[in-house]
Amino acid sequence: MPKSADRFSWHRKAYWSWYPPTHIGRPSGTATPDSADVDVTKITRPDAFDFNSTKYDCDWATMLDESGRGIGATFDAKQRQHVRGDVGKDGALRLVVNRQVSPPRDLSSGIVPDLYLKLEAGQEVSGTFQVGSVAPR
């Protein structure tokens, strides 16, 4: 995406009915790339990593410019996808869509098995979504 399309927005199926307005896991919101530029050892803002953190089980996601133009992806309720913004090394912005995202395996991997997908030989994961341009109304 061009650097002007710097507003990552989403709506998702959330686990809880209420989240604080700046919570990274809130059901919907808009984040900008500057929130990704935070030192992990010195959190200086409440929306740190909002742009580049995965939003699980999305109904839709967009990457828009100030006028509301950009790209959008919608997902069927039976096959919601996981989405995040990304800032490339060259500064390019991307809307990243994944069917499955799992955190690194650690001590909690046996405690929260719903976060992990284990594939055996011959198994596969597939998903579909629609992508289209978004223009202001």
What would you note in describing this structure?
With 137 residues, this protein is mainly β. It has one domain. The protein is built from no helices and seven strands. It has strands spanning 7-12, 28-31, 55-64, 70-74, 81-87, 93-98, 130-134. Strands 1, 2, 3, 4, 5, 6 and 7 form a seven-stranded antiparallel β-sheet that branches. A hairpin with a 5-residue loop joins strand 3 (55-64) and strand 4 (70-74). The protein starts with 6 loop residues before the first strand and ends with a strand. The model has no long low-confidence stretch (mean pLDDT 87).
Task: Please give a quick description of this structure.
With 137 residues, the chain is mainly beta.
